UniProtKB/TrEMBL annotation:
Keyword flag Transmembrane helix: yes
Stored InterPro entries: CxxC_20_CxxC
Keywords: Membrane, Transmembrane, Transmembrane helix
Transmembrane segments: 43-59, 65-91
Protein name: CXXC-20-CXXC protein
Amino acid sequence: MPKCMSCQKNIQWKSVYISTWFPNKTIQCNTCDSIYKITSHNYISLAILIPMMVSGWYINRFLPLPWSIFIGLPSIILLGLVITLIVPFFVKVERI
Ligand SMILES: [Zn+2]
């Protein structure tokens, strides 16, 4: 988790998570009210898209067509969602 630069406390997962979905939304430290924004949005997009594309390619290759849609598509979307849950632990923030 990113730490607050003023009070050294971890910034809440929930506010970082919301900010990964809405880049314009700032992150506020719960303890000292410092305001941050995520600096690594391009890396976040890549960290979500690349595993989704690779698993899509993989599923498409090994499952016949109707199955690759009914099983593959939901599992790729689920994979993307799981990655977005983990991403807040690795983002970098800067104070604004
Ligand atoms: Zn703080």
